[in-house]
Amino acid sequence: MSYRLSSSSSITISIVNTECSALFKLQIPPNSNQIPNFFFFNRVWCCSKNNKNLEMEGHDLSKFTVINETHSLNHKISAIHNAGPSKLQVIADFDATLTRYWINGHRGQSSHGLLKQGNPEYDAKRQALFEYYHPLEFSPTIPLEEKTKLMEEWWGKTHGLLIEGGLTYDAIKNSVGSSNIAFRDGVVELFEFLEERDVPVLIFSAGLADIIEEVLRQKVHRSFKNIKIVSNQMLFDNSGHLVSFKGKLIHSLNKNEHALDMAAPLHDQMGGIDGPAEDNASVKQRTNVLLLGDHVGDLGMSDGLNYENRISVGFLNDNIEKNLESYRNAFDIVYMNDTAMWGVVKLAAQLCSMEA
């Protein structure tokens, strides 16, 4: 894999071996057309200038973290640490960010993809919509305004089919119970750490809040007072049948803090939590952000927030050779190969540390 550099100045790429906490830096000279080869071994990183293609061989890439600009990252860490936990919020995508991309060698399901209505006819209709609209969502030739209208159309039709097809909450519970979805190792510990320090976590999803809540209920078996879900919320009648959706429609192109008023505290639905949740206005006053996502587009989740400092963490789960350059340029930190959440737990501890 080769990289072309347009910058006239030198750059530094830092590679962190999370297994041995070693940091290696590679200085790229100005006007260089390619980054020299990296060869990864168990606990050693070395650079070869003799080969023209970048190869990553003989090592589990999940043990490595790519940091693009260490000076900038350290400055952000220091600023957020000095401001304290009261100024911090965490914004996280759900699918393939909090959840695992691979499970036992198979692609993990998304919160939307796992849903089975219990009505094969309507499941097939929703799949047909997916096959038509999904390529349009990622088309590079469709203008944003037109694509936004297409996404509203897709989501609206899908929600209509869920109502028309008689979706029940029991179907949601059964779908989650039989699904292939799981949280990354360390996610629960991250939630617990942030809850203890009253740091709010906003989970953004263009899917369905009720499914995310049910995944948390069945997979984690507890609730968190600091978690809010910014997603599409369902309204059910007394018999458990879906009758409508609440509030503004949230789709893949508008899941950001402009939609924060749609956020629902997790404990409202799940119970078992005492004490008031932090209101949305006070969340917006938290101007330091730790953002977690698995797509470059997830960086837009902080749109609408006038933040002072943002540390962005990207999870590059697949197609590493094809996507590493764009992820490295977009995110402050990149974790590769569907790795666990422990690096983020360590970062959160550093941000919230009481030590000077």
UniProtKB/TrEMBL annotation:
> What does the record list as GO biological process?
nucleotide metabolic process
Q: Which reaction is this enzyme known to catalyze?
A: a ribonucleoside 5'-phosphate + H2O = a ribonucleoside + phosphate
> A GO molecular function for this record?
magnesium ion binding
Membrane-traversing stretches: none
Q: What keywords are annotated for this sequence in UniProt? A: Hydrolase, Magnesium, Metal-binding, Nucleotide metabolism, Nucleotide-binding
Q: Which SUPFAM superfamilies match?
A: HAD-like
EC class? hydrolase
For this record, the Gene Ontology CC terms, alphabetical, are: cytoplasm
Q: Which Pfam families match?
A: UMPH-1 (PF05822)
Coiled coil feature spans: none
**Enzyme Commission code:** 3.1.3.5
Of which family is this protein a member?
A: Belongs to the pyrimidine 5'-nucleotidase family.
What PANTHER family would the database entry show? 5'-NUCLEOTIDASE (PTHR13045), 7-METHYLGUANOSINE PHOSPHATE-SPECIFIC 5'-NUCLEOTIDASE (PTHR13045:SF0)
What's the name of the protein?
5'-nucleotidase
